[in-house]
Amino acid sequence: QSTHTIVEIVVPDSPFLVDSVKMALARLDLVCHLMLNNPTQIQRDKKGQVTDVNGEGGVLQSLFHIEVDRLTSKDEMQALKEELL
Fold first, then answer.
1. CA 20 to 30 Å from 29, out of 35, 51, 54, 63?
2. Which GO molecular function, any one, fits this protein according to its record (predicted)?
């Protein structure tokens, strides 16, 4: 069992995403132990399934992998989800 909660986010790439995510975590008093962000060209079909990565015609999306203090309750996880939406 991990000592951290892992958060994964996939959103259209835009300026200041990393700062925005860090501020959201700070509002919840969560310590960010690790944050990886990899803007990637992703192409999807009509159902939203990934059909190509880093190919021509994809949409630039930011893929985040974040490790924060361990959250143990559903209420804490829901608060994090709402803060990041």
1. 63
2. L-aspartate:2-oxoglutarate aminotransferase activity
Dist. CA 61–CA 66, nearest whole Å: 16
Bridge partner list, 3: none
DSSP lists the bridge partners of residue 39 as 62
Number of domains within the chain: 1
User: Which CATH number fits the domain that encloses residue 71?
Assistant: 3.30.70.260
Boundaries of domain holding 44? 4-84
- Name the pTM for this structure: 0.83
Angstrom distance (rounded) from CA 66 to CA 62: 12
d(CA 45, CA 1): 35
- Cα dihedral: 46, 50, 56, 59 (round 10): 80
| Residue 44 token pair | 């999807």
